């Protein structure tokens, strides 16, 4: 009498949660390398060694998988930035240093995630895209700047504008640093804060453009 085939060991099978995490990890790598438009469910399924219906079962399709990946990256970066700005007793320059280093550290440790974030998102997300994330960060920086401007008798209404400038500088520099990785993130953070802090410390209360002479 033929022996029955031995049942598969359950330890080799993924639970639903494990499979979902695997698909997210695979999707994250593919989206980072190819972008949303060039990524297919077929490729994600093939790399995860599952059938296409498994991807649809967990996420409803490529859009759903992408949305979860982006939301996670936004949450991770925003949490790191909020932690860096949490200590209200710290000197404003120290807060700027912490925020710049937190941003560069996220890029350093989450290269795939950052590449995904800086691309325009084709779907709606509960936490928004990279642009809306920077808006959230700018609002936090605005609060800090408004307090400092008021203490030094500068117009606090300018805080929003300066916050946008500072966050924009950090975000753009971060994208450049992602490709160069030189110099170190600590040096880049120090240089950014050096430029922004000493620029802020020498602010004019009512700045104006200097007219150029045609003579």
UniProtKB/TrEMBL annotation:
Record flagged with keyword Cytoplasm: no
PROSITE patterns linked: HTH_TETR_1, HTH_TETR_2
SUPFAM superfamilies in alphabetical order: Homeodomain-like, Tetracyclin repressor-like, C-terminal domain
Keywords (A to Z) from UniProt: DNA-binding, Transcription, Transcription regulation
Highest taxon of the lineage: Bacteria
Residue ranges: DNA binding: 40-59
HTH tetR-type domain: residues covered: 17-77
Pfam family, one: TetR_N
GO annotation terms (biological process): negative regulation of DNA-templated transcription
Name of the protein described by the UniProt record: Transcriptional regulator, TetR family
């Amino acid at each position: 009498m033929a022996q029955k085939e031995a049942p598969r060991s359950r330890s080799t099978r993924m639970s639903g949660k494990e499979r979902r995490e695997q698909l997210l990890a695979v999707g994250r790598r593919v989206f980072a390398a190819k972008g949303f438009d060039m990524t297919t469910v077929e490729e994600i399924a093939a790399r995860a060694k599952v059938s296409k219906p498994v991807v649809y079962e967990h996420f409803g399709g490529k859009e759903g998988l992408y949305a979860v990946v982006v939301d996670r990256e936004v949450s991770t970066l925003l949490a790191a930035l909020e932690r860096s700005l949490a200590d209200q007793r710290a000197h404003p320059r120290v807060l700027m240093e912490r925020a710049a280093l937190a941003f560069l550290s996220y890029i350093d440790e989450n290269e795939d995630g950052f590449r995904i974030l800086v691309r325009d998102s084709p779907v709606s997300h509960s936490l928004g895209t990279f642009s809306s994330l920077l808006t959230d960060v700018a609002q936090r920086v605005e609060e800090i700047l408004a307090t400092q401007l008021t203490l030094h008798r500068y117009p606090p209404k300018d805080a929003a504008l300066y916050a946008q400038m500072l966050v924009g500088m950090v975000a753009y520099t971060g994208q450049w640093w992602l490709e160069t990785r030189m110099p170190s993130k600590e040096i880049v953070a120090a240089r950014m804060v050096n430029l922004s802090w000493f620029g802020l410390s020498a602010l004019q209360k009512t700045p104006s453009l200097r007219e150029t002479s045609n003579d």
